[in-house]
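Look over this entry.
=====
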Amino acid sequence: MPNYMMLIYTPTEGAPSPDDPGADLTHWQAYRKSLVDSGMLLAEGRLQGADVATTVRVRNDETLITDGPFADTKEYLAGYFLLDCADLDTALDLAARVPHIHYGSVEVRPMVELTPVDAEVDRARAQA
């Protein structure tokens, strides 16, 4: 089955009220459990806020390090779920169920399928 990355975005301003379902950790735990129980969850991660991000660029052979995110946006990347789904429609349906979907957003992207050479490189990296 194809893999899909669900990128979870949260608004930088206007946090939900404490009684909002998207702010309730138990809703996130139940959502995660449903992904685990379905067998589709491959990986997940939650990121710290964009205020602690550091951006690295190399221009004209000079490394430039900047505090904060690369772009000033109204939303920031808060985390992700990597899923093994039957198809894009399944991934989109799961994205529509993310607990904060009524005030945040979820970007769904298909992962690039590895070629045999890529898989060998990944195995070598894992053994290093």
Remarks:
- Helices lie at 25-38, 88-95, 116-127.
- The chain has three helices and six strands.
- The two ends are 28 Å apart (CA to CA).
